[in-house]
Amino acid sequence: MFLLQALGWIVIGVAIGTGAGLAIAPVMSTLLFEVSPTDPATFAACTGLLTAVALLACYLPAHKAAGVDPIEVLRHE
């Protein structure tokens, strides 16, 4: 459940980031060497890598929290 909610935010972030990346591409073209500013393979690779890192960043704490006994946590509060 937590990962599905996180995935929604990740998709929103990817959409905004892709739009911003395409909007700023002409400005950044002077800094890119041998790659076009709107190269689909580069955009796909960056999107995939950042999505995987974001999902991993959400999964690790959720997995750790799922292994904790709720009664134990409530006793310590």
Structure description:
The chain has 77 residues and is mainly α. The protein has one domain (2-76). 79% of the residues lie in helices and 0% in strands. It has helices spanning 2-28, 40-66, 70-76.
In short:
With about 80 residues, the protein is an all-alpha fold.
Protein traits:
single chain, 77 residues, mainly alpha, 3 helices
The beta-strand count equals 0
| Strand content range | under 5%
Helical percent range? Answer: over 70%
Spell out the helices and strands N to C: HHH
Oligomer: single chain
Mean pLDDT: 88
Largest sheet: none
Helix-strand makeup class: mainly alpha
- Which stretches are poorly predicted, pLDDT < 50 over at least 5 residues? none
- The N- and C-terminal alpha carbons lie at a distance of 25 Å
* Number of domain modules: 1
Query: Count of DSSP helices?
Result: 3
Shape: rod-shaped
Compute the CA-based radius of gyration.
19 Å
Please render the helix and strand layout as text.
Blueprint: H1 2-28, H2 40-66, H3 70-76
Helix pairs in contact: 1-2
